[in-house]
Amino acid sequence: GRYGISTVLGTPTATPPAWLWQRYPEVLRWGRDGQRVTFGMRRQYCPTNDTYRQLSSEIVRAMAEHYAGNPNVIGWQLDNEFGCHDTTRCYCPSCLLAFQNWTRKRYRTLDTLNDAWGTVFWSHCYTSWEQIPLPWSTTGTSNPCLELDYYRFASEEMVAYAQLQTDILREACPNHFITTNLMGFRFQDMDYFCLARTLDLVSWENYPIYAGY
Fold first, then answer.
1. Taking CA 168 as the corner, what is the angle to CA 162 and CA 169, rounded to the nearest 5 degrees?
2. pLDDT tens-place string over residues 107-138
3. For the chain, what is the total number of helices (H) and then of strands (E)?
4. Are 183 and 81 in contact (CB under 8 A)?
5. Who contacts 185 (Cβ-Cβ below 8 Å, separation ≥6)?
6. Which end of the chain is more exposed for a tag (fewer CB within 10 A), N or C?
């Protein structure tokens, strides 16, 4: 502040500390192989997990209320690189239940779902919503319609998790702008248009060494 520097603060939800994983192991993301990931990098959280959403809400609100009146803080960056390191999709029990509920709302009846997914092929017809799986890697290739809908579901869940933080910041810091850092238009694990819809602007850090971006 003494040097006239304005600051954009980042919410710390992409890098929760080791004690959090130890105390709340249920918030860890599961890989497609059905194994829970371990601590050691970043973005190990499951975006649908109720515990992690509550913890995220608490720390975002605490930071927002603390810095709301600070004249040197002008804006916020949500999390960091949503979906980076193949973390858009989680395959944990929380996601399984959420996905089953998502399909129920989308298709309303099992007959409609079975018809849309072509489940008569390979005897995949479902007779209850609880039978619908996630596209785990345990049996090779999944039904492509199941896979596509799960990708849609996972994108919506990550966008909803971002919106959770946005809503808190809008309430506590109405004069600050909100952004998050995208990873180029070749990143297709989530719907960037939906993610950006309620932001004031989008950001992008440029890594020249990564030609793919």
1. 90
2. 999 999 999 999 999 899 999 999 999 999 86
3. 6, 5
4. yes
5. 192
6. N
Distance in angstroms (rounded) separating the CA atoms of residues 198 and 37: 31
Mean pLDDT for 38-46 is 86
Which residues share a beta bridge with 9? 76
Render pLDDT for 144-177 as a digit per residue (tens, 0 to 9).
999 999 999 999 999 999 999 999 999 999 999 9
Token code pair at residue 162? 């971002």
Measured CA to CA, the distance from residue 96 to residue 101 in angstroms comes to 9
Confidence (pLDDT) at 211: 56
Count the residues in the chain: 213
For residue 191, CA distances in Å to 155, 159, 171 come to 6, 8, 25
| pTM tops 0.70 | yes
Sign of the alpha-carbon torsion through 99, 10, 169, 181 = negative
Residue 150: name the closest of 164, 139, 136 by CA. Answer: 136
**Statement: residue 69 has pLDDT above 90:** yes
The Cα–Cα gap between 206 and 11 comes to 20
